[in-house]
Known about the structure:
Largest sheet: none
CATH superfamily: MetI-like
Distance between the termini: 46 Å
CATH class: Mainly Alpha
CATH topology: MetI-like fold
Structural class: mainly alpha
Helix content: over 70%
Radius of gyration: 21 Å
Number of helices: 11
Strand content: under 5%
Amino acid sequence: MDFFTDSFLSAWALLWAGDPELFHVIGVSLKVSSAATFLAAILGIPAGLVIAFREFRGKRLLITVLNTLLALPTVVVALLVYAFISRRGLLGSLDLLYTQEAIIIGQVILIFPIVTIFTLSAVSRIDERYRKTALTLGADPVQAALVTLREARFGVVAAVIMAFGRVIAEVGISMMLGGNAKGFTRTMTTAMALEYDKGEFVLSIALGMVLLCISFGINVLFNMVQGRAGQ
């Protein structure tokens, strides 16, 4: 118990002192996760709208596949991306392996299905009469889709928040594609794993506390948005 208490107090002291290494690791995590979430939203929200409003062959199969990918292990994503960006891979000449860009690519692949499926779900709950009325009043299909998206905005924002929560806490992609390079690709989760292996628990606990605070904030924000969506 004394060991845990001492480690906990030392972690607080590290945070209070503004340890540069600690805050650099936090900054890298927030940077790559925010970039991945932004790109996934840019791709996933339109994809969810298209799937919701268009009828095409294989639509049910596509939705089933996307639902299956919601539980995609991070290690599988990392292996898939690694096969493409390693030196012998198709994109090896781009020198992406062990960079922040590689982590972002892997994280986008991980959360794209989340944003797409939950956007589809949010839009599908909106009364079809909104879109039909917009079309009747002269709106084109894109404008009508945007009208529905506006009505479903709280559900879509909740999907994006959920996606960010998924990537900020993942470790497999960051470790395998980023390489855990100090001062460059080390994230909160990979730093925690490394410090644990070294037997240095203070930095791990400090990062764990920050990660818990971020996760708590994400969940509070998610519940607030969900509450607005349900009104």
